[in-house]
């Protein structure tokens, strides 16, 4: 079984390869060139002792936004540092939080990089979103007497099994954390099994979405732009889902020739692949990045970041991607807070509690395959009042679940961060 000392030694030996890998990835994908040195712990030196939030990628970054706002309101004199792992996560932070926070890439979990990062940034507390457990981060945080909280923590059965294989590595990391604030009793029990010492159930902070005023305004613009066209948004799609969406859309076009499909891949760099699928299907489409008029088009391919909620606000129907292929689904709450009628597929493991509760509350519809998806969309297109009522139930569901952010603030108050 691997211990932290063995883990640290292996990463030390692999450091030259990590440097080569970083430069190679930056060559292959230019966004990874940006601030690449931060991945080794280098960066500006600060002495203002920020509250540090780590949000690995897009989903976590979006969930962190209301947390940042709550922290800024609670501790107006303490700066906020937000780290991410992916360029898309960093871009979401930049778009939604701007200069109100300091941004940095999370270093690789080598002992030297993590120690260097902590020495240069000097955070007073670390809040990690969801399921990021890094042994060297936890080790050096304990050495620096830095409180670490795992916020909005979730752990799927598959992840529990994977972490369990390396229990001698991850058990000390979890045991050193100040607290684990879990999304559900099931998640809490999973973290206890892995070795977390203090585990609390706070539910899901993703319910504490702020009023989406900006998205509503942009959604109104799109509705005016699209006139009376009905709009189906299929968001956060992965490989295999775009072709399914196109096939379903062509079925729907027979009865609703003016229907517009807004197709939003989870990763914008997949645009070329999705374009090939659209071209092979003979579908007329526009690219959002080129701001082409869509009146004469059948599909709007959104190859930009940060606009999902804007299109939700303009949507008549919404389908959640990552749920028709074994990816685990994506967050349906952003669509729910905008009163959208929501459909997702059979693979919602990443949001299993939210999905289950929404289904129990009749706030979403789950279907198994493309045929069932087409049938449900047809039903709502035929009966728009039914779709509107479904969207209203989704919004009511979110409003009833709020309150987790205040529980996190209470935990932080006990740490006396000021």
From TrEMBL:
Domain 3-deoxy-D-manno-octulosonic-acid transferase N-terminal, first and last residues per copy: 35-208
This protein's GO CC annotations: plasma membrane
Superkingdom per UniProt: Bacteria
Pfam families: Glycos_transf_N
Gene Ontology molecular-function annotations: Kdo transferase activity
Free-text function comment from the UniProt entry: Involved in lipopolysaccharide (LPS) biosynthesis. Catalyzes the transfer of 3-deoxy-D-manno-octulosonate (Kdo) residue(s) from CMP-Kdo to lipid IV(A), the tetraacyldisaccharide-1,4'-bisphosphate precursor of lipid A.
Protein name: 3-deoxy-D-manno-octulosonic acid transferase
Pathway involvement of the protein, from the record: Bacterial outer membrane biogenesis; LPS core biosynthesis
Membrane topology: Single-pass membrane protein
């Amino acid at each position: 079984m691997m211990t932290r000392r063995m883990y640290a030694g292996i990463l030390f030996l692999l450091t030259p390869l990590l440097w080569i890998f970083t430069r190679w990835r930056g060559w292959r994908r230019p966004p990874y060139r940006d601030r690449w040195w931060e991945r080794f712990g280098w960066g500006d030196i600060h002495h203002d002792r920020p509250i540090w939030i780590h949000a690995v990628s897009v989903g976590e970054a979006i969930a962190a936004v209301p947390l940042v706002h709550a922290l800024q309101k609670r501790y107006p004199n303490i700066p906020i540092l937000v780290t991410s792992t992916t360029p898309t996560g960093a871009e979401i932070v930049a778009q939604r939080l701007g200069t109100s926070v300091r941004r940095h890439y999370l270093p690789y979990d080598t002992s030297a990089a993590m120690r260097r990062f902590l020495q240069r940034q000097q955070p007073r507390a670390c809040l990690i979103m969801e399921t990021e457990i890094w042994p060297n981060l936890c080790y050096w945080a304990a050495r620096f007497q830095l409180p670490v909280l795992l916020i909005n923590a979730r752990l799927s059965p598959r992840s529990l099994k994977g972490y369990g294989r390396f229990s001698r590595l991850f058990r000390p990391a979890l045991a050193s954390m100040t607290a684990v604030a879990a999304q559900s009793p099931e998640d809490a029990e999973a973290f206890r099994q892995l070795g977390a010492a203090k585990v609390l159930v706070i539910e899901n902070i993703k319910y504490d979405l702020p009023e989406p005023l900006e998205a509503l305004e942009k959604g109104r613009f799109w509705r005016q732009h699209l006139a009376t066209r009905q709009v189906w948004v299929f968001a956060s799609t992965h490989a295999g889902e775009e072709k399914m969406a196109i096939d379903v859309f062509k079925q729907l076009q027979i009865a609703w020739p003016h229907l517009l499909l807004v197709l939003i891949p989870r990763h914008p760099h997949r645009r070329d692949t999705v374009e090939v699928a659209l071209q092979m299907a003979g579908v007329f489409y526009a690219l959002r990045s080129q701001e082409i008029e869509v009146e004469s088009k059948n599909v709007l391919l959104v190859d930009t970041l940060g606009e999902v909620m804007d299109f939700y606000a303009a949507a008549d129907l919404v389908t959640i991607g990552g749920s028709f292929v074994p990816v685990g689904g994506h967050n349906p709450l952003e669509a729910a807070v905008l009163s959208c009628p929501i459909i997702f597929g059979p693979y919602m493991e990443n949001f299993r509690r939210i999905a289950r509760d929404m289904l129990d509350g009749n706030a979403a519809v789950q279907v198994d395959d493309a045929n069932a998806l087409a049938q449900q969309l047809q039903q709502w297109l035929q009966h728009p009042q039914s779709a509107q009522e479904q969207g209203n139930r989704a919004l009511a569901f979110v409003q009833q679940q709020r309150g987790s952010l205040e529980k996190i603030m209470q935990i932080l108050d006990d740490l006396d961060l000021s």
